[in-house]
């Protein structure tokens, strides 16, 4: 059987190891579609898996990478045929199922979404799981009833992948976007994306009051912990916060006050097991509502061989915007 290049994670005496190596095609897991992977991307969860900082990987050996875009090579699934351009995010790739940092992937056809018209495979991974998650958050806020007329919206972790795409999309839709960041040097970058205001994340880092002054109608949070508690306490009556990350921790030191006294809603966003119809809707909206020029400007390209080094950088908060990984 043929071999192909892949970032392989193995169990070690102390933690895990990740290295670029040759992987045997015979070791690919069950699936009815084999894809020639062309592009992947770097997400926060990828950083956790590559460095072993959190128990993201649940089986060994594992090929890292939670999303890809590429071309179908072989299929026994009725929806897909050789030559189709597809995108795959989540579903346990890089965690329980061999992932995307490889020249080949074998997955279930039910996991795939057709590459939207107008997006290249590289574009799709410039968006990646982070951008897809950001759009799911925007769709959830819209479903809640939020519109630009509702008032300002806040985006935390603003210079990261989720934050960057969320700002670009929300500003294009007409929202007054408040960007929260711990990197003052990124102010010009965030304003160029469409942020109308920038606040220091320190404003959201102190222990949260049960209720604070109302500042925004909604928001997208990728930070969690005290930051999310503060967002909730500052959300206007009837507003909502879409929560999709835990960069600061999994805890939520809040109270019921925002929910029972202001009718605030906390909207949970999961991109991993998201059903197929919302996936298609989110990708179609990304194709239409994300400024392609801004996407180009927030994206850096790296080769597969550099992925492990960049995994540590994204955890250290040293990555701005999106990083695409060229596989072939």
From TrEMBL:
InterPro entries: Acrylyl-CoA_reductase_AcuI (IPR014188), ADH-like_C (IPR013149), ADH-like_N (IPR013154), ER (IPR020843), GroES-like_sf (IPR011032), NAD(P)-bd_dom_sf (IPR036291), Zn-ADH-like_protein (IPR051397). PANTHER family: ACRYLYL-COA REDUCTASE ACUI-RELATED, SHORT-CHAIN DEHYDROGENASE/REDUCTASE. This is Oxidoreductase. CDD domains: MDR_yhdh (cd08288). It comes from the Bacteria. Residues 15-325 form the Enoyl reductase (ER) domain. Coiled coil: none annotated.
